[in-house]
Amino acid sequence: MSEVVELLISGIGQLCVVPSHGDGPQRGHRLGDLGLIENAALAIDDGKIIAFGPEDEILGGYRAVQTLDAGGRVVTPGLVDAHTHLIWAGDRAGEFERRLKGVSYQQIMAEGGGINSTVRATRKADLADLVDQSKARLNLMLAHGSTTVEVKTGYGLRTDAEIAMLNAIALLDAEHPVDLVATFLGAHAVPPEFEGRADEYVDLVINEMIPAVCEWRDEHWPSLMFCDVFCDEGAFTLGQSRRILEAAAARGMGLKIHADEFANLGGVGLAVELGAVSADHLVVTSDEEIVALGRSDTIAVALPATPFGLAHREYTPARKLLDAGAALALGSDCNPGTAWCENMQITLALATRYLGLTQAQAIAAATVNAAFALGLGDRVGSLEPGKMADVLMWDVRDYRMIGYRFGVNLVQTVIKGGRVAFDARWGGW
Predict the structure, then answer these.
(1) Strand 179-187 and strand 226-231: pairing?
(2) Cβ(381)–Cβ(367) under 8 Å?
(3) Where does 79-372 sit in CATH, by number?
């Protein structure tokens, strides 16, 4: 007798399961294992994947309350965006215009612009306005296939303002279909009121902000929260970054680091030493550190929209990372300064062109590996039984179209936790 489930997706031309390898991400040149099955079906119940396989087998073993016909289209896991700065107010279009005229990002930061420009606007916004502006961006992320999104603070740089950003993250997570992962980034930049006193600001982050954030976490955020630090030229030194991350680890926070976006200060080595879940950006990472990453459990998160947004020519050396056996993931780095792009499909397109990834490798880096970069590899990122039924139905019939085509939304239907959250045929939500 057939088992009854809530949802069957039939008529799948290509099913990309994108399996984890053992209990971990896809590493090195094994990246790109899609677990591809043609003429497939997928069984979903109670918001989770129950079974997948050839269509005749699945339809023979399961009956459903609801059936969706994929019509020969490609089906993949929902995209996991491993690195964003979703919560902010205002814009920096004027700074972008200055960069087009040749002024560097670092020069704008040194003049009090850049991150601190957004800090001023975000501090002025009330919570409702902050949520409304950010929700509009999150809606676009969902429409383009992102079903799990990491979100950093870091535009408050004051205890009350950082907590306000966390409140915005919690409100959005509660009311929106997309699942959010919270990261505290109080060490994003030295705020204007601490100009010339960076060590004093680091003391504030350690002695006031981290305890306040952890108190908020214990009351409002039952899942893992991360602490990140921008270890780079014009931001925080290696020593300052170490102090912050060690303080966060002592309070049970997961660790991440922005490293090697502009200058190599040794942040990757610190991430590996401290067992950070991920090291992100990695544009100018040394060969020695790449080898160290390959031998570690720290996941390399590439953000190709950022050098693209800055019109830089150097990108994360993805091929070297894969040669070293590292686990590579992708994120959009959606932010108001360098990469205002809510569409992870653009990240996949850039990864195939500037990181040298195949379409299959880019898909795996933006699903199962990105999930592991958020500590969620056992829950999302692949279509393996027991994981959440976060599923994309693409309006293409060959997965190689993903990354090949760009500039349009190729996602037709987004299923989040077993329920349709977005469908382009219905005009959206």
Answers:
(1) parallel
(2) yes
(3) 3.20.20.140
